[in-house]
């Protein structure tokens, strides 16, 4: 039965019906750069994130994602010009006084890079891109940035490991060993951010492309653009806790609209808890700890209850993200521009 399910995924890819052409992420709320290149260089330091995601745990061939992202500002002059020139009074660096003194970042550039490996059964997709963004101040507390990312995406299928009842199944035709295709990859986005809200729109896989394993046009996949729109608002629940509700819409042609509702609550600069509800899809719980001004870690657990998935695919999903704040000369424990 499991081999039948795995092969069904394979056939779906070939026939263009594979909805998960790109990896899914739960913790994009702490690394929105993974979805929108306009966030390139948004912070004062070099932001590095490493992540591992295991979907539908215990099911052979279930999706697994590994990624590494890095981005850094160029020519950015922020709210302090020395490590000791600005101190926020009190025990909570993200308290009321901090946000009252918040100022928009000066105009600057950002550059970054992303590596992603996404494996589902015998199908492996990988992405390697570099990004650029420009950040512009619109008002004393408001910034607008625009960015793009370009590189390559690749698809490999190890057909030699697929066991079929009919060894000449037309869906794989003459592919008996390993299939490889490399295509150009392009994404772009904009991001509006201030001291208490953000909003952004981005598009990934902008260039529609076809992947043909065999000459028969019946068995081919079309890689289509993925559109993301998100917005969130920060408000203070007292002087110790900041709460951030947000919403993300994900549009894929020929698919229903996906809607995520998120909430994150942060205590001082050290701990945060969060939740995610994917309408008609499932829900997740998240937590994170800022260990020091150079290291943080977070974890999420998803439960998928979509009626479109087989029972085997409704098992839990684990995702862990480890972050590094390099060149953090101001000693920030958590991001200033991405809460």
* Helix percent band: under 10%
Instruction: Give start-end ranges of low-pLDDT stretches.
Output: 1-7, 12-18, 80-91
The CATH superfamily is monomeric porin ompg
* Molecular shape: globular
CATH A-level architecture: Beta Barrel
Total beta strand runs:
17
Radius of gyration: 21 Å
- Bin the strand percentage: over 45%
Major sheet: 14 strands, antiparallel, barrel
Straight-line N-to-C gap: 44 Å
Number of helical stretches of at least 4 residues = 2
Q: What is the CATH class designation? A: Mainly Beta
Strand order of the largest sheet: 1-2-3-4-5-6-7-10-12-13-14-15-16-17
What are the secondary-structure elements, in order, as H or E? HEEHEEEEEEEEEEEEEEE
CATH topology: Porin
Q: Which whole number gives the mean pLDDT?
A: 83
Structural class: mainly beta
Question: What count of structural domains?
Answer: 1
Describe the structure.
The chain is mainly β and 339 residues long. It has a single domain, classed as monomeric porin ompg (Porin, Beta Barrel), CATH 2.40.160. Helix content is 5%, strand content 49%. The chain is built from 2 helices and 17 strands. The protein has helices spanning 2-14, 96-100, and strands at residues 46-54, 64-74, 108-120, 123-139, 142-158, 178-193, 197-204, 209-212, 220-223, 226-233, 235-236, 241-251, 258-267, 271-278, 282-290, 295-304, 317-326. A 14-stranded antiparallel beta barrel has the order 1-2-3-4-5-6-7-10-12-13-14-15-16-17. A hairpin with a 2-residue loop joins β3 and β4. Mean pLDDT is 83; it is low at 1-7, 12-18 and 80-91.
